[in-house]
Amino acid sequence: MIAGSAIAAPAGARSGFDSVDPFIGTGGEGHTFPGAVVPFGMIQLSPDTRIQPRKDAYDWAAGYRYNDSTIIGFSHTHFSGTGHSDLGDVLLMPIAGEVKLERGDVDKPGSGYHSRFKHDDEVAQPGYYAVTLDDYGIRAELTATERVGVHRYTFPAGKPAHVLVDLRTSMYDYAGKTLWSRMRLREDGTVTGVRETRGWAPGRQLYFAMRFSQPVSGHALHDTEEDIAYKGFPTPGHQDPRQRAQIEGRELVAAFDFDDATGEQLLVKVSISSVSEDNAIANLEAEVPGWNFDRVRTAARASWTEALSAIEVDAPEDDRTAFYTALYHTLMAPSLFMDSDGRYRGPDNAVHQAEGFRHHSTFSLWDTYRALHPLLTLVQPEQRNSDFVNSMLAHRRHSPYGILPVWSFHGLETWTMVGYHAVPVIADAYLKGIRGFDAGEALQAMVASASYGPYDGLAQYMELGYVPIDEEGEAASKTLEYAYDDWTIARMAEAMGRDDIAATFGKRAGNWRHAFDAETGFMRARKRDGEFRTPFDPSASGYGTDYTEGNAWQYSWYVPQDVAGLIDSLGGDDALVSKLDQVFDAEVDPGLFEHMEDITGLIGWYAHGNEPSHHVAYLYAYAGEPWRTQERLKQIVDSQYAPRPDGLSGNDDLGQMSAWYVFTSLGFYPVAPGSNQYVIGRPFLPRAAMNLPNGKRFTVVADGLDDANPYVGAVLLNGKPLERSYITHEEIMAGGELRFTMQTGADTTWASGAEQRPYSMSGAGG
Amino acid sequence: MIAGSAIAAPAGARSGFDSVDPFIGTGGEGHTFPGAVVPFGMIQLSPDTRIQPRKDAYDWAAGYRYNDSTIIGFSHTHFSGTGHSDLGDVLLMPIAGEVKLERGDVDKPGSGYHSRFKHDDEVAQPGYYAVTLDDYGIRAELTATERVGVHRYTFPAGKPAHVLVDLRTSMYDYAGKTLWSRMRLREDGTVTGVRETRGWAPGRQLYFAMRFSQPVSGHALHDTEEDIAYKGFPTPGHQDPRQRAQIEGRELVAAFDFDDATGEQLLVKVSISSVSEDNAIANLEAEVPGWNFDRVRTAARASWTEALSAIEVDAPEDDRTAFYTALYHTLMAPSLFMDSDGRYRGPDNAVHQAEGFRHHSTFSLWDTYRALHPLLTLVQPEQRNSDFVNSMLAHRRHSPYGILPVWSFHGLETWTMVGYHAVPVIADAYLKGIRGFDAGEALQAMVASASYGPYDGLAQYMELGYVPIDEEGEAASKTLEYAYDDWTIARMAEAMGRDDIAATFGKRAGNWRHAFDAETGFMRARKRDGEFRTPFDPSASGYGTDYTEGNAWQYSWYVPQDVAGLIDSLGGDDALVSKLDQVFDAEVDPGLFEHMEDITGLIGWYAHGNEPSHHVAYLYAYAGEPWRTQERLKQIVDSQYAPRPDGLSGNDDLGQMSAWYVFTSLGFYPVAPGSNQYVIGRPFLPRAAMNLPNGKRFTVVADGLDDANPYVGAVLLNGKPLERSYITHEEIMAGGELRFTMQTGADTTWASGAEQRPYSMSGAGG
Known about the structure:
Chains A, B: Residues 279-743 form the Glycosyl hydrolase family domain. Chains A, B: Pfam families: Glyco_hydro_92, Glyco_hydro_92N. Chains A, B: Residues 20-273 form the Glycosyl hydrolase family 92 N-terminal domain. Chains A, B: GO terms for molecular function: hydrolase activity, acting on glycosyl bonds. The structure is a homodimer. In chain A, helix 3 (317-329) crosses helix 17, helix 6 (382-398) packs antiparallel against helix 7 and helix 10 runs antiparallel to helix 11. In chain A, a hairpin with a 4-residue loop joins strand 28 (516-517) and strand 29 (522-523). In chain A, strands 7-8-9-10-19-15-14-13-17 form a nine-stranded antiparallel beta sheet, covered by helices on one side. Chain A has a six-stranded mixed beta sheet with strand order 20-34-35-39-36-37. A four-stranded antiparallel beta sheet of chain A has the order 5-11-18-16, with no helix packed on it. Chain A is α+β, with helices and mostly antiparallel strands. The first copy, chain A, has 18 helices and 39 strands. Chain A has a domain at 16-306: Beta-galactosidase, Chain A, domain 5, CATH 2.70.98. At the A-B interface, strand 13 and strand 17 of A face strand 13 and strand 17 of B.
């Protein structure tokens, strides 16, 4: 029996816990990691199998690839499902026998400190990961609290036991990435340090503290950097790395020896902090004062069991696995980013104190405003959702630019992707009744973010009503996304009685029209002189073109705030449907996107692996043809998700891909956050009960669910026929039952009437 | 009339203030700077004339060389008189007309933003510096508080006014020195930032805040680094440096425009902090809330007037200038290193809070334990001296190595030079009655520092009684200096009744004997096997040899704790005198030290420009021949000091060279700090009155002082003949008068008796 797999599930109702397979997404395009994390935990402790030069790093954004057979070590910070990457901080590797200081070539066994492993020896559960390191005969187990990673290494008998700590490694490797680092062995055996990196985030400082369950019997602190222009004067012990108390430099690696651990178990506790080494120590002591690995693991299991209990699902095993793994992947970010004393580092790289909220970071907002945040509003306590908003408001207060986060992690801004999508997250939260933040400050922050001229063509957008492509790249996408974001400001301002702001931004919400080319029926980029840029090819794709990670076929449906207006512009319902069909049914040479690693999961032009497509299948419903949405959803679910390591067709993007799956499985999707509408698609689960944060319960039942019954027939809300193809947030939060009867043939009349479709709300401009 | 020279001296007694010439030491070997600083101020705001590659930087250790004719700008941190260097943080240059971003080649006018200047246009006074930048026609004036530098720029009419801020420059320039930096223009016009450097101190973080008296009408933030491996995503305004709100990188330079300053005065206030940008702002607001340059200058003048009033001197003008400039140079370090809220960064690079003391840093202890700290005990309030000790104790508490500072600045340890000379500073303070620190903790820290094995051969020293040269460089010097330091521990332990410690370290104090070679009469380096290293050449000199910055001729007199023992070993008084004469009278080829830039000020082998020689002339008195000391002192004073820019024959070393001059001018010198004895040499001033920190007054009078009367005749202490060649600390602190009658011929009998000589105290081993 494999050590560590001995903790049994609690008795009683079957928990989602056992259905989670953290390996899903670790192959293929998902970029998830299999390691140990608690819900929204600051620590993501996970094995890294390969560290690539940046140009080759895309597939290893989460450190671990299921197809690899070598583990380099276990590092403490990971993104779940990003395209771009960073992190991989403080890598530990247990070693039995001779210590090698270089990680070597993972394709050459014995060339470095890495070790081979087999999937048969791996166990991955929420909050727990275990593997046997074959080159050393070491069983390594990982678990975590919010801010502490706990390692349990079982060393073989007869060989010296060591732990290597490598501060040189990162997800993306390149010269000069580590700006500075420090490692110190304190008298009490605590190891502390810091790593400052120039990565995706600039000048990121990551402090850590580490304690071992057995005394350090020896140590060696090494700086492997060569050709240092000036080394300063030698520190005590410089002649012998075993006598050094501290080391500073840009390429640090240390080996710690444990004479008493040979043939025994050694526990290592590692905490991180953005504030200081002292704070890292405080985090360590606050969360894991003792040396009971199983207690930490059990607590992590309890946290996950509770978090996953937000939705109770009856479904076949594979569907359960796919569903609960998706739900698991939605409960990781935005992650806690605050020390036990409430301090954290902000986008000004200064230390701040959280007052009255728990500060979170890792906001992948271009992705997550779509479905992840709306999902978390339904499955997480209101407090957590308020924390997200308060964290973004704090970011804005600390920002040198005075605006809300765009793509931030570890408190710092990366300026990745486009739009100001903190705005729809806040508006959606407010409009859904979340009140644990200062709405006045929030609205002010939203307006400030939407008015900051130097940001991505925003000055020109405010001047012209669109972003001119001759002055700013990806102008078509930016115009469209700004207009949607503006609409959410108008919606929130209206709800707050701020009619002045509502009027201004309601007008701006109509700016999507400046991108619409009536002649071709596509959204296009206009130049300052008002002309569309030519030549125009709707299939042309590339980074930094007129569109963001896409082309005209993919971006021309981005008017979630005014689909009715889009339909009008296109020439009516049939025009939309026909054009959507052209998207899905196109014969597309996949080679067209070979140079765009983010564009994956192709069905025709539809790219489920990237976010601009996520709402598209639901648009048929706006044209009165919800049965076409039902068809497309089955097409997507069948082809883009599978309960296998390569079962995610695109980057999970901190849970957005998975949130799409969770919503779609339940039978509805938030096409336009800010509207409080969920567009009904079709359910993929026989029965799912949502335990809502207000204590109510909303159940979705799909009678007759079967591959032979792919269409929705009767729809009952609380026993009464529901004639429209959307439900509202208020209806869900009131609790109750949404019952579908699935059938073989399409019901082409249900919700086809003008009044029965999802609709655009006031403030949509025009 | 030159602007800014209008502030008159206060009425009344003539102050030392007017006799200070800050240019002394800025040429030749002194390495002092002429800029604005207050006593022990954290800011040293001074012009930099040339920034050299490290290999050529020795002469520019303080940034300014009197022989240069070009100013690059004004930076805010400088060392006074070091050999090695660093600092030069946050360089400002006012510009009228076109902005150049590169400093250019100072030998080519117009090749960069530097400007020519003339000494005729310079004014330098304590706390004030002014110059005209000829290339721009700008009058630039500088003054300072403890933590704030204030610039006043008078711009010519008709040209755009700018201020350039260069974060790329340092005293020593080399690739990779700046690890990271940041600059931010805040909405209120405050500029803040940080610079992290890998210099003499590793990973030093220097935060700053800057405010202008006129609105910033435009700005441009530039990063001039090329070939960045990975730049991250573009920040808002990246296309136009004038739209950037913040910039981060390794080569930052910014230009700020002031439309309203053309033909007008612009004030710039700049503060620094080791803690954070917010703390830098707080320092700025606490110390210089308004915009009155003259008020700051007047306050600086008042601080200096008070500090210099510790000694009132009647002497010819040149002697006054030399004396008060020397005293001025002794009142700069250890300098304040703590923000207005009491926080500072320590040797663990963490932020700490000073409780009950003001934290100081810049401890050049190998130099300053000799005469600077003993002088400050006499001329500064007891509180300041307690602060020094408390700062060193804090350093030890924060040190990853658990030991007292060796050579620290800006809170960080540089490990420069040898010995653990914080120990004699603390012991001397304690033995002289300074009590504002925890003596128990201090003794513990001293013992810990003297027992830390990995430090510079200390493990072997504790094992063998000497540092073995085959295992550790400069072993002869280290053995000698450790033994002296050990003696001071014994002295303090004895005074505290800790006889156990006194016995241990009293024994160690005798370890100098292990270095003494009876055969050659020199101190030599022994190998582990007990043999002296051969071949032996007492003239052999070089860095990293058997001696520290010297040779056997220079180091063989380093037994301040047991000169009597040394005399015995050499074979008696005559042997010592004869050997000392060989030192001074040798014919030495100066080329011998061409490769050792620190060895300067040669008189034979005697090198007054470096510290190991500083006590040597006083040793004749121990052999009962004080008249020979009198001769040598005149020889040294006449040849090594002059009131001219090149008037210091060696690096001032944070005031040690100057402290030697102050003591020697007064007529006595602390050969063995820890003994409470001052060895009487001969006075060089007709009359000097010390206003002691206890409120008493001790006056030294030299009747008949004249070049024709170079010898001491009668010596009266408080009117009674003083028969011995030393006075005690207690005698000085009691107040009174020491009166010398100078005469033409040597008095060869005075203080020649065994009981009349300075003597070694108990605990000197044996």
